[in-house]
Amino acid sequence: MVGLAVLLPNLLLVWFPPRTPIPRVVIPWWMGGFERVGQALCLVVPAITAPGDLAWWWCGPVVAGLTGYYALWVRYVRTGRSASALYGPVWGVPVPMAVLPVLVFVAAAMWLRNPWLAVSAAVLAVGHVPAAMRIARGVGDPR
């Protein structure tokens, strides 16, 4: 459910694509590979592994992370659907829409006491965050 909760808002891009173009940035093959594998693992691993004894207090950070992530999607739609709203910094976090999903998956791993999900989140982080940083630099480039 957490994986779907993280991925579901991305469907907004189908109906509400950015009005400003997202720059074409070269993402190294290994970075893209880690990102895609991490995404797949974060969806599949919870479904194929048994959770440990649930640590319910970690549910709070999961909900807080999802709330922040959804708030950023609302900001994207309300501020005119610019690429900078997708990749711009918030409160000193360079690419919060890439960082928050990773943090949600880490918190979910703690909640479920599932080390395999934690590893999956780390794999996602290795690809997703640096790829988003590259795109963010392209969004900020005035050329």
From TrEMBL:
Recorded superkingdom: Bacteria
Transmembrane segments: 55-74, 86-110, 116-136
Keywords for this protein: Membrane, Transmembrane, Transmembrane helix
Record carries keyword Transmembrane helix: yes
Name of the molecule in the record: Uncharacterized protein
